[in-house]
Amino acid sequence: MGIRLAETSFRLSPLSPRGTLLSGAALAALLLAGCETASGIRPPGRGIAEITDTDPKAASANLDSLTEVIRRNPSSAEAYNTRGVAYARVGRFGEAIADFSQAIKIDPDNAAAYTNRALASRQAGQNDAARADFDHAIQANPNHAPAYLGRANLLRAQGNLDQAIDDLNNAIRLNPENAQAFHARGLIHQKRGDNARAVSDFDNAIDRDPFAAAPYQARGESLVALGKYDKAIEDFNAALNVDNKSAQAWAWLGLAYDKNGNRQKAQESYQRALQLDPQQPVAKQGLRG
Question: Where are the annotated TPR repeats, by residue (predicted)?
Fold first, then answer.
């Protein structure tokens, strides 16, 4: 099993540039997928990590090659940072944190290493350490957008929404093409009941990354809250085109059909949701009528 990490697609390579970040979509699952929705419902495990299948032999060979790079370049912060990402991708967070720590020891102003260590610390449940590292990353480089995004998601998870919004505004200012930052900010607007602003941010997230399911799901929920059921149905179907095993998407598709007066399709969708998650609350409530 491996972890699809956050920010952008990442291929591990000994030649990765200095400042390599945890990449892919789990530490986007960490950064993004902790989706507090309009309903306040959060599926178990979301927001922690998105585990994906990885060839163990390939992962082991990659780690071996990165270890050899470190043997040849023992004073390279970039080499330790890159191997730390490789460890994190296979769930070895303790070793990842150790490598990021060594990168920081070699280069105390390495904002990417601080950010990566913070993200790995969050995966290990060490939120205080993560917060300190995000702060250090921003002190080292006030223009390092991923640190603002990572800190914002930690703050959001802790209920510090005003501070989280400030960080997301900075992340978007520094990197206006970052879909994750728009999505995360939209979730805060959604949580506050400002669904029109939430939809605008989800629009921006989808424009920048049309192949991620979470922004479609989130936008669909805000559209339901706004009474725009036809558009919500389109969004839940789009989310299901990416991940048709999402009980939440099936449940909310059912709710949108229900609100739109199509009880038969609503029941079919609720049943699909409950096949995937027998405890899915929206679907259970929907079938009870």
Answer: 77-110, 111-144, 145-178, 179-212, 213-246, 247-280
